[in-house]
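re: the backbone from monday

yeah here it is again, tokenized this time
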């Protein structure tokens, strides 16, 4: 490869002031559960800790913190527009945010009346102080994660993770003393300079942490995550080798054996996936053709263990004359690397110096509190660290006073669930409804306990794919609100396919919804309904169908469930159901049994629950 000139280099774009970057106050809100299903608030960008394995800590320099007022204002606006019940403060090192104590106090004053929880990503053990923990648990104790990365003090000095075992154990004690029952700990295997003693130290640290935790709480448990180290571009370790699959498996098994304990749960990234990630992480432009070939061969969702097909990736590499080990090997420092044309601002000489300090076990100080390490990013004119000023905190508006025990006002909502909303499961619909209630701004009454939620009573659950013209749900408010206003507010924020068409205050007379038979209109795109099969079914005293669940298949007598079947023609019928307290069955499965339909045909039926069940049943 030829040497690169200045014209060949691609320079990163850098936002020098995060406060100038306006974020839309209406974040996307998922209708189904996703990973990180919460309001994510970026409070800072960049990190000054200098961990030598961390690509993000190198390429996102310098540290730029958002103004605390800006964070607070955006969070309030985004919560009002989204209805999220959890807020996560994101940055590469959230515990280092300069105004964190004042921000947390004021933010929790805003969040706690609405029972909105606060969470953090994994944090450095030395930043998890008692006052921070006290603020987090004001609503709900969300997950607690610390990342020692290595088991021994020696190896943590190599990677510049400047934490001692004593600091880690002190944090564990504080967390469980504050009421947490589970702590997550992240580690890596295969770090440069790692020895067997470091793996043994990792297991010893986990056992020490568990012992410390159980001295405080007898319910204490640890969740330990172990992943294979992958050298990343633009870091001091970009020249180092990655463990082979066999080495990774051996070390993982060694650690798992050492960590066997009924109160320690272990998770790990399979060595096969780490192998593939390592190839792609330090790959060159030749891998573009390999990725295309792997996709053509059938590679999909390789991050999921059950879908990872390394044989196909190896075949794709071979088709293009490439060897996997070429990408996992150690590189020479004078070698031109595939990513050298990308200028992230950090000087190559700085990375090489840091690599040498790692070999010597010498720590590099945090440039936030120490002197500049001359990494090359800052020009000290337009590019330089920007920290939040603590003086901004007193200007925040005062928190609203705590309310006395409220009087509860109950209302019954009649709503329709149609179109795309019919594909929401009941649990997904509940989540959508809770968030819609929060967005509505109604004075909600919340439950107590570990996970406070708006006090709502759902009457029945529709099967996935079944629409309804009329369902009911009860809500509780802390102040009286006119029913038309409740209807109007909710219809402005409900998801497509959901609409409230009537609201009534609940009194002693109408306190419980009547238990009605259920009436369904069923239509089919093809002629599948046979009047002879209907007559045969209705003449039976018993008629059995299979109800399948993930871990159970059960024979259910469905004849008592059916009150009537009204045949219109071969593509249209009405069905009246008498629900039981137990041993019910999905409408699609019931119809499939009665008319001997394959599962694919049953799923194509268009089923609508209608509101006039009582009248049809009496007829």
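seq for it, each position gets an aa:
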């Amino acid at each position: 490869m030829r040497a690169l000139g200045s014209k060949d280099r691609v320079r990163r774009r850098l936002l020098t002031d995060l406060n100038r970057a306006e974020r839309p106050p209406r974040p996307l809100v998922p209708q189904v559960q996703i990973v990180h299903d919460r309001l994510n608030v970026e409070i800072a960008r960049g990190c000054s800790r200098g961990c030598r394995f961390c690509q993000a800590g190198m390429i996102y320099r310098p540290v730029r913190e958002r103004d605390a007022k800006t964070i607070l204002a955006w969070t309030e606006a985004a919560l009002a527009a989204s209805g999220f019940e959890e807020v996560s403060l994101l940055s590469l090192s959230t515990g280092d945010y300069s105004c964190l104590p004042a921000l947390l106090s004021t933010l929790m004053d805003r969040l706690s009346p609405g029972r909105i929880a606060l969470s953090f990503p994994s944090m450095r053990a030395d930043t998890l102080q008692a006052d921070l923990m006290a603020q987090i648990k004001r609503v709900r104790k969300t997950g607690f994660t610390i990342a020692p990365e290595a088991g021994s003090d020696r190896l943590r000095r190599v990677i510049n993770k400047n934490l001692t075992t004593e600091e880690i154990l002190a944090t564990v004690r504080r967390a469980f003393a504050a009421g947490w029952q589970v702590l997550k700990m992240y580690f890596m295997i295969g770090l440069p300079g790692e020895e067997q003693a470091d793996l043994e130290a990792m297991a010893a640290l986990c056992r020490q942490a568990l012992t410390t935790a159980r001295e405080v709480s007898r319910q204490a448990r640890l969740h330990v995550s172990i992943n294979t180290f992958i050298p990343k571009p633009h870091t001091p370790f970009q020249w180092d080798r990655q463990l082979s699959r066999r080495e990774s498996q051996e070390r993982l098994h060694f650690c798992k054996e050492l960590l066997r304990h009924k109160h320690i749960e272990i998770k790990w990234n399979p060595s096969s996936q780490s192998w593939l990630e390592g190839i792609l992480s330090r790959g060159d432009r030749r891998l573009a053709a390999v990725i295309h070939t792997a996709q053509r061969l059938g590679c999909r969702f390789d991050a999921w263990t059950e879908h990872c097909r390394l044989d196909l990736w190896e075949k794709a590499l071979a088709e293009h004359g490439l060897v996997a080990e070429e990408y996992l090997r150690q590189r020479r420092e004078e070698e031109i690397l595939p990513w050298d044309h990308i200028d992230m601002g950090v000087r190559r000489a700085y990375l090489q110096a840091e690599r040498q300090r790692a070999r010597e076990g010498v720590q590099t100080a945090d440039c936030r509190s120490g002197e500049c390490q001359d990494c090359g990013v800052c020009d000290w004119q337009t590019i330089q660290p920007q920290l939040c000023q603590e003086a901004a905190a007193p200007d925040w508006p005062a928190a609203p006073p705590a309310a006395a025990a409220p009087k509860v006002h109950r209302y019954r909502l009649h709503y329709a669930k149609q179109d795309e909303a019919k594909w929401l499961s009941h649990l997904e619909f509940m989540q959508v409804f809770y968030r819609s209630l929060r967005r509505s701004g109604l004075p909600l009454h919340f439950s107590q306990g570990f996970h406070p939620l708006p006090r709502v009573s759902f009457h029945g659950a529709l099967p996935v794919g079944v629409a309804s013209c009329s369902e009911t749900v009860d809500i509780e408010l802390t102040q009286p609100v006119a029913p038309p206003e409740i209807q109007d507010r909710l219809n402005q924020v409900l998801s497509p396919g959901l609409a409230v068409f009537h609201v009534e205050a609940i009194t002693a007379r109408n306190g419980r919804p009547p238990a009605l038979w259920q009436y369904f209109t069923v239509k089919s795109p093809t002629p599948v309904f046979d009047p002879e099969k209907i007559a045969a079914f209705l003449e039976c005293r018993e008629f059995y169908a299979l109800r399948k669940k993930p871990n159970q298949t059960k024979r259910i007598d469905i004849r008592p469930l059916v009150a009537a079947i009204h045949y219109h023609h071969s593509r249209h019928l009405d069905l009246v159901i008498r629900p039981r307290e137990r041993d019910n069955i999905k409408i699609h499965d019931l119809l499939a049994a009665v008319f001997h339909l394959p599962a694919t045909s049953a799923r194509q039926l268009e089923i609508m629950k209608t509101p006039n069940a009582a009248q049809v049943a009496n007829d």
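The CA atoms of residues 183 and 493 lie 37 Å apart. The domain at 144-270+348-364 is CATH 3.30.750.200 (Transcription Regulator spoIIAA).
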